[in-house]
Write a structure and sequence with these properties.
With 183 residues, the protein is mainly α. The chain is built from seven helices and no strands.
């Protein structure tokens, strides 16, 4: 896996973590604790991947990528089963959809990586591995920038749609009531 791909996964996972941390305060205490722990773990994993330049505990990360997706799915199912839309409304749809997208991308790439590793192990005796050349710095930095911009372009509106974003006094600059001193 290339450095750029690892960086994109780290950015996406950090984006999911920040979104989960932003959604947590608007939920019931057990859900807030779960989202807080998951969001913190996601963010820490992304920082660790950027720092170490390798995927950290990929099996655990694979499982961890599904936990918030499954949890949100169960909340939605419970809201429908118990005819209680208020249960689901504490988890804003846009932020949760974007975090779910990030989590599913992580899980998909990790699954593909695991599958390639298995087939490479099976084929290792049949062929010799060719050494990888590192990316030129300008390509690596361009890849980092593109990944960071893509994740921030999705994460920013997701955070704005959380309770923290909606209740932020700085979120409504167009609605400021500036007194007119020219009577």
């Amino acid at each position: 896996m290339s450095q750029v791909t690892r960086s994109w996964l780290a950015f996406a996972t950090m984006g999911a973590g920040v979104i989960h941390l932003g959604v947590a305060p608007g939920t019931a205490i057990p859900a807030a604790v779960a989202l807080g722990v998951l969001g913190s773990a996601e963010f820490a994993w992304g920082v660790g991947v950027l720092f170490r330049d390798r995927l950290l505990v990929p099996r655990l990360a694979f499982v961890g990528a599904f936990l918030p997706v499954i949890g949100w799915g169960l909340v939605l199912l419970a809201a429908v089963a118990f005819d209680n839309p208020a249960l689901a409304s504490s988890f804003p749809a846009l932020p949760m959809l974007i975090a779910t997208l990030f989590n599913l991308i992580l899980a998909g790439v990790l699954a593909g990586q695991r599958r390639r590793a298995r087939s490479a192990d099976a084929d290792a005796s049949a062929r010799e591995k060719s050494p990888k050349r590192p990316l030129p710095a300008y390509l690596y930095l361009t890849g980092l920038m593109v990944g960071a911009l893509a994740v921030s372009a999705l994460t920013t509106p997701a955070l704005a749609a959380t309770g923290a974003g909606v209740d932020n006094p700085h979120a409504h600059h167009g609605e400021l009531n500036i007194p007119d001193h020219h009577h």
